[in-house]
Design goal:
Layout (H helix, E strand, L loop, with lengths): L11 H52 L1 E2 L5 E2 L21
Keywords: Membrane, Transmembrane, Transmembrane helix
Amino acid sequence: MGGSGNLPVGPGIFGFIAVFLLAVALWCLMRNMNARMRRMAYRERDRLEQERLEQERRDQGEQGVSRPDGGEDRLRPGSRPEDGSSTDGPAPRA
């Protein structure tokens, strides 16, 4: 074997392009994942806040809303009775 010299062998330009494209793809995927995780955290925070507000409304409904004359309304302010009766007058006492 004649002329066995040390020739530099490396990935060349095609190896660089392949690694560069993989790095760009990874960057795009991580950016997208971070956006989705942030959106999911906001939705979870909003869902928990909504559940807390609904629970407070339910608790107020169970306790009744105090009136100035000492009685209790059986309905929350702004709600309508299921039987269709008017809420203009005082609520009947049980």
